[in-house]
Specification:
The complex is a heterodimer of chains A (196) and B (251).
Chain A (H helix, E strand, L loop, with lengths): L2 E4 L6 H10 L5 E3 L2 H6 L2 E4 L5 H10 L2 H6 L5 E4 L1 H5 L3 E2 L4 E2 L7 E4 L11 E6 L16 E6 L1 E2 L6 E7 L1 E9 L2 E4 L7 H12 L2
Parallel strand pairs in A: 1-2, 1-3, 3-4, 4-13, 5-7
Antiparallel strand pairs in A: 5-6, 7-10, 8-9, 11-12, 12-13
Chain B lengths: L4 E9 L2 E2 L14 H11 L4 E5 L4 H17 L4 E4 L5 H9 L4 E4 L1 H5 L2 H10 L4 E10 L2 E6 L4 E6 H11 L3 E6 L11 H10 L4 E4 L5 H9 L5 E4 L1 H4 L5 H10 L7
Parallel strand pairs in B: 1-3, 1-11, 3-4, 4-5, 5-6, 6-9, 9-10, 10-11
Antiparallel strand pairs in B: 1-2, 6-7, 7-8
The chains are: A alpha/beta (196), B alpha/beta (251).
Chain lengths: 196, 251
């Protein structure tokens, strides 16, 4: 199986590569359009700031390439946010794959710390991405911006408010949490994605 | 609901864990990577690796160890010890660490916190504070608790928070190694004062101590070393216990 990881200016891309390697897959890290189109699966991970990431993607024409992909692609964390319409982070126009805007968490009480960081639970998981899952599995999050619940939501998490922990539309999948840092549960999600 | 975190801490010298361990069914107890993986499989939520090596060679070994942890362990991990400038942080992050912990370097040069937060994001920056309670209140110490400073625990923690720290890892020197519980009063005040998570450290001796750090100290995470390394408390039983005490932990 050919697996490609989108190469761009976001951090923490190597942890996804390591997670794939633990599953016996050696991915190629690339920003080459043809390699991304030819891959059986594409991962679009990373941590970073939305406006810088989008500027980089546009400069390298990767915005169009990602939007036009027909093969299954999994956005992770900032990857998920970039796949949405717009982000409050840096007032950034994003890829517009998911017709929803990314908002900044607004704490309601002292205990609502931002970023939302740590292990939280998946609710209402409804996708082949979560095959074999029961309600309330824990996954690892680190983020200050969130995607509201929308028609593409395939799992929610409750922090300050219920929001989208994962999205799906056609060949596009995305998680706000980090499956590559979520122990055996995260491993299963990556495995499920590879088996789509 | 966001889970309270349990964090084993491993001291590493020249690539080996320092304190002897009698970890169940682990043949290479001295190998921090094998130990980290075992903790991860038992349900640890994060790991902390502290480099207590002084030599240049040892530091290189530590970086190689960080790369191996990143490759083999599937939960987040923090590295600390000897990080004094931005390029050390960059080296650790590019080796695969999720977060770095800074202690003396932050007290000597508080701007380092701003720089880490600006360049890599707050979530990367754990500010570790070693403090001792004496007749003048809580005082921060440098160099692994050897040199007292002029700084008080609470005002320094607030400054670190404002400068962009992502978490405070507070070790009470009065409680560390005593196994009589965490410094819950100070923890509760930190939780009240700060807008970032607090990790309790120093004093774990029983499962009840972890409960109290969460319920009385309002800590977001609890860190311990010897009770885990010597198998006095197993992480699965600890988490079952905390769950039975109505504390939300990841099982």
């Amino acid at each position: 199986m050919k697996v490609a990881v989108v190469k761009y200016n976001a951090g923490n891309i190597y942890s996804v590569i390591h997670a794939l390697q633990r599953l016996g897959v050696t991915p190629v890290l690339t920003d080459n359009p043809e390699e991304l189109q030819k891959a059986d699966k594409v991962l679009f991970p990373g941590q970073g700031e939305a406006s810088n990431a989008m500027r980089y993607l546009r400069e390298h024409n990767l915005d169009k390439v990602i939007r036009d992909l027909k093969n299954p692609i999994l956005g992770i964390c900032i990857g998920q946010q970039l796949m949405c319409r717009h982000s409050e982070e840096g007032n950034t126009d994003c890829l517009g794959i998911f017709d929803v805007d990314v908002l900044k968490f607004q704490p309601k009480k002292h205990e609502d710390k931002v970023p939302h960081m740590g292990w939280n639970q998946l609710e209402n998981p409804t996708s082949e991405l979560f095959k074999g899952f029961t309600e309330g599995e824990f996954v690892y999050f680190v983020h200050s911006f969130y995607v509201p619940v929308c028609e593409n939501t395939i799992a929610t998490t409750n922090y300050i408010l219920p929001y989208s922990a994962a999205l799906h539309k056609d060949n596009f999948y995305a998680t706000q949490f980090h499956p590559e840092k979520s122990g055996s549960v995260g491993e299963r999600i990556i495995k499920n994605f590879l088996e789509l | 609901m966001l889970a309270k975190r349990i964090i084993p801490c491993l001291d590493v010298k020249d690539g080996q864990t320092v304190k002897g361990t009698n970890f169940v069914n682990l043949r290479q107890a001295g190998d921090p990577v094998a130990l980290g993986r075992a903790y991860s499989e038992q349900g640890a939520d994060e790991l902390v690796f502290l480099d207590i090596t002084a030599s240049h060679e040892g530091r290189k070994t530590f970086t190689e160890m960080v790369q191996r942890v990143a490759a083999e362990v599937s939960i987040p991990f923090t590295v600390g010890g000897g990080i004094s400038e931005l390029k050390d942080v960059e080296k650790m992050l590019s080796a695969g660490a999720d977060k770095v912990s800074i202690n003396s370097a932050a007290l000597r040069n508080p701007k380092l916190i701003d720089e880490i937060a600006y360049n890599f994001g707050s979530q990367v920056c754990v500010v570790a504070i070693d403090a001792r309670l004496d007749e003048n209140g809580w005082t921060c110490y440098l160099n692994g608790g050897r040199i007292p400073t002029e700084r008080g625990l609470f005002e320094w923690a607030r400054e670190a928070n404002q400068r962009g720290a992502g978490e405070i890892l507070f070790t009470s020197m009065n409680h560390d190694g005593v196994k009589a519980g965490f410094a819950n009063d100070a923890l509760a005040r930190l939780a009240e004062d700060l807008t970032i998570p607090v990790i309790a450290s120093g004093g774990a001796g029983s499962m009840e101590h972890f409960r109290d750090a969460f319920t009385v100290g309002h800590a977001d995470a609890a860190l311990a070393a010897s009770v885990f390394h010597f198998g006095e408390i197993g992480i699965p039983e600890l988490k079952e216990y905390l769950r039975s005490e109505k504390i939300n932990v990841r099982l």
